[in-house]
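Record pair follows.
FIRST:
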Amino acid sequence: MKKVLFSILFIGLMGSLFVACSNDDDAPIVITEEPDPDPTPDPDPTANSVLSGQITEDRTLTADQVWTLDGRVTVTNGATLTIEAGTIIKALGGQEANASVLIIARGATLNANGTAAQPIIMTSTADGIQAGETVGTLTENDRGLWGGLIVLGNAPCSLDGDVTEQQIEGIPANDPNGLYGGNDPADNSGTITYVSIRHGGTDIGEGNEINGLTLGGVGTGTTIDHIEVVANVDDGIEFFGGTVNASNLVVWAQGDDGIDIDQAYSGTVSNSVVIAGNVSDHALEIDGPEGSANGGFTLDGITLIGDQDTSRGEYADYRDGAQGATNNVFATNFQADKDVELDNNGVAQNFLDGALLFSNWIIEGVDPANSIFDEKTGDGESDIILNPTFTERATMWSTIGTSGGANTAVFGWTFASASGSL
């Protein structure tokens, strides 16, 4: 009897289990995992977007984020900094030793290869420009908000005392990465194309500002093409010696000189434009060698656009033994009392000797015979008397006209063009 009763109970129990298993649609089994007590968050895509100190190994800046330049950032000897087309770099402010500036030291390489559709833009953190944009929220009157771009090489320079190297202006004397100059005319600092440098030139000391683009002892192995500098406090682009060739340059609304040449720079600047702003000084300022080594620049296909509001705004100043040739120039919109100067004895003598040459200047609205070409000779600054005068000789290479100089159609990618100044 007990065996029968046990069998009945066992069968009943198994039947209940079968029914429970067959109804799993009505009572699903849910498995819950315990949370990770110390989860690792997703990485911040902008965590490494701040550039500071020294870049000592190869690095690439991508266009998918905006990069921040914090203080004096130096790409050191042997390292390469690559910047993708369309990349935006915004620099923090700061004065003197704390100024934000990007330095490409001797032996380092910068490959900054923008395109007309996707230029590389270096600007201030005060600029509201965002990734994918080419026009920001600042204007040509917003100057001195950061430093600038400095590229240094091993090419020859004519330096005071015939030394082979020197510290670049704008960098503290105790920073060895600020040295430039050497004995390699073909030195290669990289490729810099379609780059717009905006709102720089901060003070680093009394009367000492950083240029928009500084080229110190840069050699012919370097490519400088399609560069724009906008609203820099000091010069737009300055060549300290070197041999590099540069083409398709635009300088707009600089506070001092547009294109400045020093220390026997011996390359060619072609198809380039300087557009004065309301505080600009000379469009061109050309100096000669400081040591015994000579060298001759070439400017070819240059457009100079003056401004009616600036109190300075001269065409050009040739001084301190300048040597070279300025050919195929178109100048327009300068005030009536502005001029092209031979500034002292050394440059006047070079002109007489054929070491300083001019050809094919076209001046809109001004007869060159009416003395826009002015020598400061015989007036207390020089005792060399030109006879015929510089003005009289200029009639052989200058005319009145409405076009010439650079082919400005290639500058459609620039901020200056988008703003209607070019």
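SECOND:
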Amino acid sequence: MSAADDADDMETWLLEAGDEVIEKRAEQGEASLSPPERAIYCMWALDYAVRNAGSLDALEDVHETAIEDLAVFARAQKIGVLATLLDMAGGDEESFIDAYYEQFDAACTELRSCNETRH
């Protein structure tokens, strides 16, 4: 399996996991989500903004505090790649988006692992 296949797998995982979380959130409310589920929702929102809008501005419409919330979770769970990536979000947006694409599969792999071990 190539690195591109891994990234496709992580994109698919995030979309599917995000859909499950969004459905649960709609049916049972925000309070029903576990911390890993909230993190998946934040990552889904960030991915939506980056891939569909090409800008972090889209987070205002989807989940305004996604970056901050996800960074808190990543640091608490010691998800290094994700925490380091999110620390870049306050700087140059173009550089952050480039880094996002480069680090996406590693960040999602860590998030997925965290969710599976705590679910």
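COMMENT: Residues 3-118 form one domain.
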